Each structure stands twice: as C-alpha cells, then as structure tokens.
C-alpha cells in the first residue's frame, strides 16, 4: 500500500484525526452549498440574473465530487463493492447529472438526482455521536414495523371505502370527480392536512366528513402509541445493564454505586 | 368426505401448505386488481377509453369470485353458518353487484358494495403473523374503549357548544349558515383539519377560533395518552414468557416466584 | 317525608332501580331531542317548512323540563343549595330561554343558552360506569395542569412574537392587516389547523412559516408527553392494590390468585 | 448599603414578602397592558381613532419601565453583569424603541422589539412554583435534544427531496414555481398544516401527496414518542422521595433497600 493512499484513506475515512474532521466538515459545507445552488437554479428570477455564476459553481462542485469519487475508488480495498454499495451509487449520482446535461439538452429531471446529493450528508453524520441516537429511533421503528404495517393497511382500507362513499355522496359537481380523487380527499382529511381544494358541500357529505375527521383524530393515537411504547421500553432497558456481584440483582440505575438489594459495592 | 373436497379444503383454508400459500397470494392479487378496476372505472377519461376492457375484466373477476363462493359453500362443514357469517356476507356482496347490474340499469350505488371486496383481504392476512400484531392493537383499543368513549362524548359536547356560539358570532354572511354548519366548522377546526371552506372573519370569531384551536391542540394529547398507556402496559406484560409447570398459565411477571393461578413455585 | 316525595326521589336520583334507569334513559332522549330541535331550527330551509312543529316540540320539551325542575326543588333536602349548584343553574337555563322569548322578541342569543342543555347529559352519565373512566382522565389532566399551563403560556408567548414578526414581514397587502391577525395566523399555523384564509406569500414569510410549522410539529409532542406520562403512571398504579396476607407484598396483578413472592393464596 | 436600596431590593427581587408579591403582580399587569397596546396600535381602525390615547399610554409605560431599569442598575451588586445579562438586555430593549422613535421616523420594525417585552414575564414567573414544572419539561427536551435533532434532520432531508420531486411533477403552472416553493409545500403537507394555497392538481402529484401525508402521519409519532419516553422516565424517577440517612442522597427507587451512593441501609 502506497503511503499517499494510506494518508488519503485516513483523511477520507477516519473521523477522529484532526485532518479527517476538517475533511468531513469541508465536504459537509460543499454538499450543502451544492443543494443550495440546485434550489436557487430553480427560482426563475435568480436563474435569469445569476445564470453564469450558478453554472460555474455547479461545475466546480461537480469536479470536486468527481475527484473525490475517483480517489475513493482508488483507495478502498474492494472498489467493486464500493461502487455498487448504497453510498457508492449516491456518489456516482452526485456527479453524473452534470456530465449528462452536456450530452442531452433540456434535462430538467436531472435536478431530482442532483438533490439526492443530500443523502451524502448521512455518511458524514454516521461517523459521530448522532449515530447512537438515530440507532435508538431506527430500532424502535424497526421493532414496531409489523404493528405499523397493520395500522397503515387498516388506514388504507378505511381510506378506500371512505373515498368511494364520498364519491357517491358528493359526486363530480363538488370536486369528487372519481374514486381515486375521493381517496385523495379521504387521505387529506384523515391525516388532518385539510387543503380545502376539495371539500364536501352537501349536508350528508359534511356529516360523513365530520365523522371521518373524528376517526382520524382518534386513530392518530395508534402510531404514536406504538412508537412511544417501543421507545419507552428501550429507554427503560437502557438503564439496566449492571449486575450485583453479591446477590446478582440486575436493573441498577446508571449512576448507582451500591446495590439496591444487599448494599454491596458495584463496580 | 370426498377426496376432492378434502383437497379443496386444504387449498382454500390452509395457509401453511405450498398450494395454500399460492392460493392465498393469487386471491390477494385478484382482490387488489378488482379494487383497482373499480377505481379506474370511476375515472371518466379512462372509463370512456377502456370501457369494454374494464367490463370484461369485471366479469372475469366476478366469475372467479362466484366459483370460489360456491366452492366454499360446498366444502365447509356448516354451509348455513358460513353464509351468514361476516366473511360469508362479504363474499356474497363481492359478486352480487355485477349480477344486479344486469337487471337494474344505472346503479352507481353498487360501486361502494364492490369496494367492500377490499375487506376480503383481511381474511387472507388473518392467516399470517400480522394477526398477532393487530391483536395487540385491537386489544389496546378495546381495553381503552370506555376512556375513548368518554373522550369522544366530551369532544361532541364541546363541538356542539362551540358550533352554536360561532353560528351566533359569525352568522350566515360568513358561511356559518346554521348550527349544524357551525358544528361542522368546529369539528374541522378542533381536529386541526382546517379546510378553510368556512373560516371566521370577525375579530371576535377569530379570537374564539384561536382558543378552540389551542384547546384542540391540548386535547389531542388525551386519546394518544390513553392508547399509549394501554400499549405500554401490554408491551411490559408481554416480556414475561415463562409458563407454570403445573397449570401451564403463561404471562407471569418477570419477578414472579410463584404462579398467579395455582401457587406452584416457578423456576 | 311524604311517600310520594320519597318515590319521586328514587325515580329521579337513583340509577340502580329499574324505574330510575328508565327515567334516566327517557331524560337522555328528551335532552338529545331538544338539542336536535335547536339545531334544526337554525337551518333556514327546515325552519321555514316546519316552523310550527318545531315551536310545539320546543314547548313540550320546555314544559317537561319545567316540571322536572320544580319536582327537583320540591324533593331535594336543601332546595337553595340545589338552585345555586352547577346543575341547578343548568336546569334553570334549560327552561328560561323559552319563557324569555315570550317577553322579548328576536332573541337569537338565547339559542346558545338552549344548547347548554347538553350539559345536563353529564348528570345522567355521572351515575354509571363512565364515571370511573372519566375520573382517570380528569385526574391525569388535573395533575398535569401546571405542566400544561407552562406549556400553554410558552405557546402564547411564541404565538405573539411570531405574529408580530409575520405582520412586519408580510404586511397588510398579504392579509396580515394587524398584529392580532398575525397572531391568529400564528395560532392557525402552529396548531397545524392551516385554513389558508391567510397564508404567507413572500419568500421570507414562507421560510419563516416553514420554521413555525416544524416547531409546531415538534412541540405538539409536549402536551402529549405530559398527559401520557401521567396516564401511564396511573395505569401502572391501577394494577397494584391487593396486599399478600403472608409476606405483605403489594403490586399483584388484578387477576392474580396466588402471591408472586411466597405462593400464599390471595383473597 | 443604604436602607432605601435594601428596601427596594426586597421589593424588586424578593417574591415571598407581601410587597414583593404586589410589585410582581403590578409589573405583570403593566407588561401585559403594554403588549395589548402594541397590538391595538397595529389595528388601523383603532389606531386612527385612539392614536393619542395609545401614544400617551405607551409613554407612561415607557417611563415606568425606564425608572424600573435605572433602579435595577442602581441596586444590583454587579450592575455591569446585570446590563449584559439576558434579562438586562430585554429590559433595555423594552424602553429603547420608544426613545428611538423620537429620533427616527417611520420605524415600524421597532414594534417587534416592543413585543419582546413579553419575555419579561418569564422573570416574574421564574419566582413561583411554575419554575419546577417547566424545569421538568425543559430537562426532558434537553435530554432528548440529540434524538430530536436527528429527527429534524431526517425531516429536512425528506422535505427537500419531496419538494424537488413535486416541483418536477407538478411544475410552475400548478403553483410549484421553484424548488424552495416545493419545499414550502412539502413542509406545509408533512406537518399536516395544509393551507391549500399550493396543492397538487395532477393525478401523479395527488398520489405522491397522499403518500407524503401518510408518511407525515406516521412520523409525527416519533417526536411524541421521544418526549413521552423521556417524561415517563422522569415521572417514574420522580416518585422516589426517600432520603438516605447517611449521605442525604435523594431519588432512590421505590424498591431500593440500600442507598445507591454509600450503601447504607434505607428505612
């Protein structure tokens, strides 16, 4: 392994050294700037005024990302594995749109792909203490995934039936032009978003809508309850890890120095 | 019992065999397709273009469901019991609308009945591991049904009084044309849906509305708290997995030393 | 005490006897009907058509309530105390508007007072098992009243500052005609109601609004957390009431027959 | 220290004496009145009618606050420290705008600064029992700040990607004129505010929007779960009120037999 490869490895992959931290921070700023430019480019008034500056900035960022991508491929032990990994794909997608735009004209759709650069931020954050906290949330969500699936499926059924009923009750003249539109309305209502672009106008429709809202109000409790129960369980488990050497009691507080049950000193 | 009846029984009612699983999956797809066709039929532009294809697809599905219905009646031990059971009724309602549409013309209302086919999905899901999870949710909801009833009744009273007050404050010229409409507005507001089809325009009305919203914000905590407390209780009880060697009772507390039911020492 | 007074007392105040239950149920129906009539009266199309029927129905109900009110005064031990009690006032307000409407014409405001009849329903419900459940909710709300006050005060401060800032940022031409209106908007947004009658139109305003919404999204967790923590505490206490006669251990499950700790039979 | 300084100190800084309580209450009323006047001044119709009265009221309040500010500087032990403290700055900002308005004309922006007077209320409230309760909420929020940061960052990423996709799907003709506007829409939708000033109109857009709403419905559970888990933990710890006779440590678990800190037997 070449010394320069090893040094680059430290800079790019290690987050504990000073230079590694500096690299992570710089990359974070470049990514956020890049997202900002994508946004600004989409605002007509700004795009018209600063078109050239945005173009140049986009190319500078693309070149930085390209170099980083090539260096990564060069220094990792298993380049193929990296290229086809989740972050490898994101890294490629971060630079590809700019090059493709050279070949194909009028490719607005590439903008979304450029916005995906934001996902690169997660790699940087992965390396610090947010990792542990997000792990708790993700674990709670993962362990409650069956309950949440059941809930979502129930909501889906409810929404389809409500949407069909409202389509028949209100009809096309009040904005419910089809069942999918009725379902869209049911989702908007049940989730308490309530745009008001479609809203019931007949008395029966308003009565049914009121009932749907109250149901939505009640069932929002379910996912909250599921996640909370899961998080509470974990946060309670979190406190209990040490075992008393004398009486083998578990479940001591984090800051406990002596055993609750027999008074033996804990280590 | 004929061998063919027995084999059909296995296919339709058992989910653990390979062919049983295949049958369940096929039925699931047919049901979902059937719902999709009902939706598409309601979209005018699609209905005009593909009227014939949708009609044929509907009849194919109706015939599949009809055969399935007849086979089920044939193979179950107590046909009468099946016919009048919840799923028996749903199965009948899944095929009836298509036949009725032959006799009666312009029967839009049958669409809702066809949408009820979706409920058939639950029978299929009943047979897998989602059952246990949904049981936890349903038990939590059932055990908190009195608390939720009290809550809903309180909300109802609040909504009627608020609706009446706002009807008097705002009046017909601002959209509050009657007390039921005021109540509709109160529900829309208290549940934080907020369509904006009716919204207060006087200063007093907007002040009252602000108070209603903050109340709604606070009381949304109540159903959530109820369900969460119930789910937390269960998820804590859930963790006890020991079985009494004498009476085989499950669900003992973690720290239990003797069986709750028969007093036998637990190990 | 006259026998008739005693019998009337049983009918009106006791809910366990058969006639007492019948009286409660009848009263419940009359109250709900009376509310229904108040609502229907406010709908112009119904009022025009059935004016006379509604008038007669209103008078029948008023007379029933008047008789009930007089009988209650007659049979209670401390009439003065009853008259000035909460339910005594509600009972009086249930009949007063109709008599006042004879003297004064065009008294729309009396409608609200008539809607207060709904509160009478709570007296009837007080007598059954909903009492215990609502007690749990009310106790949880009462014990968290300081935390909720702090929360509401914080929300109020936030809303006033946000409303003032938005009034300056957006100005009268985008609907923010005054600070109170800005505060109204802030409440509508923070509580996630979102009518859309006033919505930010400048870029700065929309950026600030986005931040307000995300804050609102985060702080809705606070009241929910407060009430849930309180309800969880109670629901955990709820399970522990019996004490083992042998080892005096507390905290047995509701359905426990033998002590967890020593195996003694519980009574 | 002069006797008058000492007496003023007692009046201003102590809340337990009768005169201290009276001072706090008076100050609270003056602050709230002052905020009310700022609000009323912004309402065109009131401002036009009562311009002079509001002007005079504003000056009376400014003079009261100025005197209070000077007295505070005079009596505190470290005037410099007070002046540059949070509340010192707020106190200065409470009087500055009125004096600045004498020099500079048309300074609408000073209104926000005047609204900051509301923050002074917290100093008064700090002195009573609300302190303890708000401490619990603040501690729960502080201890869950990493989890909430992770959550907010996840929401931000989601919102940027959704906003970009919707900008491309719906386009400028349906109100999604730029990516920032798409992000604004995504925040409005995900937080279930739903103004309806921008809403999807294409079928694909409405389908995506429905999915965003259901996601928003599910993830609202996360911050609630986080805060609730934190508050539950505290409220359970809170219940332990025994004190160790040796080391005077508080906050032992309910079932603790020996002190966590020094191992002494608890009674």
Automatic annotation (TrEMBL), chains A, B, C, D:
InterPro entries: Ion_trans_dom (IPR005821), VG_K_chnl (IPR028325), Volt_channel_dom_sf (IPR027359)
Keywords: Ion channel, Ion transport, Membrane, Potassium, Potassium channel, Potassium transport, Transmembrane, Transmembrane helix, Transport, Voltage-gated channel
Location in or out of the cell: Membrane
Record carries keyword Glycosyltransferase: no
Bilayer topology: Multi-pass membrane protein
Keyword Transport in record: yes
Residues annotated as transmembrane: 25-44, 56-76, 148-169, 207-227
One of the Pfam families matching this protein, by short name: Ion_trans
Entries under Gene3D superfamilies matching the protein: 1.10.287.70, Voltage-gated potassium channels. Chain C (1.20.120.350)
Domain (Ion transport): residue spans on this chain: 21-236
Name used for this protein in its record: Ion transporter
